[in-house]
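In this supplementary section we document a worked example of the pipeline. Step one takes a protein sequence of length 258 as its only input; no multiple sequence alignment statistics are reported here. Step two produces a three-dimensional model, which step three serialises into structure tokens for compact storage. The input and output of this example are shown verbatim.
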Amino acid sequence: MARPRWLPVGSPVVVAASIAATTLGCGGAAAMRLPEVAPHACKPGDLADCTLQCGKHHAPSCVHLGLMYEGGRGVARDEGRAAALYKQACDVGEAHGCSDLAFLYETGRGVDKDEARAAALYKQACDAGEVHGCGNLGFLYETGQGVAKDQARAVALYGQACGADDPHGCGNLGFLYETGNGVGRDERRAVALYRQACDGGEAHGCGNLGFLYETGKGVDRDEARAGALYKQACDAGDAHACTNLDRLRSVQPIGESR
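The serialised model returned by step three reads:
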């Protein structure tokens, strides 16, 4: 099963702007002094303001700006520039910057591929409470990339992410319960985790839940329900679910889910 990857964006910290001060000049005439506006969280996609606020060392704005450069949204794609911006944010403790920088090191985009460095950055992000970092670190432990393979550690990290309502962590943990990797096989538990992932908008969770309904593993077999879940996942971009939906339709027509 293909593993989902993502680029998390955290909730930016908003710093209150300073209040304008009024002073009295000569002769009692009121003179306005321009306020010294504190840095604030830029609106994602606003290149000018994100550039300005990052220049004022507002770390979450640097992350937003990095995402724009990484994805080529509103500016020419420049993954090296994105990496520098994520590092700038990470260096002052912005966990999302550490997690996003780790992803670039993991995939070798904008920086030389370095899975060990990625693992260290994901750990830094996870330790600071960035749950996507925990989930991505779990993936490295599951697959043995940059760290010694450790399925039990992967289970713990996915559980940590899922417990913080990260649908990707729930979906990946469900896969381990379904296959019995690092934990005792428990298809009913897998069903619950896939459902949690699917309800959270994680397409792979919907597709994998559909497979369990189709095969009757952990739930009563229900091909109509399977078809509906495959379609939901397919519409959200899960190619495996599209393949499964086409296969299921070729065997027999799929009616409405119960």
